[in-house]
Predict the 3D structure of the following.
Amino acid sequence: MEKVILGIDPGTNLMGYGVLRVSGRQAEMIALGVIDLRRYADHYLKLGHIFERVSGIIQAYLPDELAIEAPFFGKNVQSMLKLGRAQGVAMAAAISRQVPITEYAPMKIKMAITGNGNASKEQVADMLRRMLKLNAEEMGRYLDATDALGAAYCHYLQMGRPETDHKYSSWKDFARKNSDRINEGRPPKKG
């Protein structure tokens, strides 16, 4: 079974996008780039351009699903409002094409890709390069694009994994709550 996942990293200057094709248990990058909004001074013109470009990307790659990064809540309310609008317009473009949407917190994406929810953008990009077996030229020069690819890859990793009642705050918490599974077949520690 084949599936195409579009990942988007919302932005008001650069909006990243990454497209993954998933065949069985294999994922490959088929597109990576940014929507450059820096030449538009008017915020509403930016929103219109976002809608047009995201709609065009959807038409070009026909994604089955959209994985989008949730806005990071900062101290500047005006920036958050603008970022939320940009995300909403990208989501509206997907909705208008009947593409299902899943939103991921930045920390969840970083945790899924690197195992560290506080990883840097560079660490996420490097891990994606390794996992998808890409060379440096294929990664592009904008971390907004690799962040978008990270959202798509995070969604790929979540596919087929049912939600459980088990919630863990860290690897240490998981290990503590699952010591019987981790220590299977190992002799007990002398203490």
Remarks:
- The first strand starts at residue 2 and ends at 9.
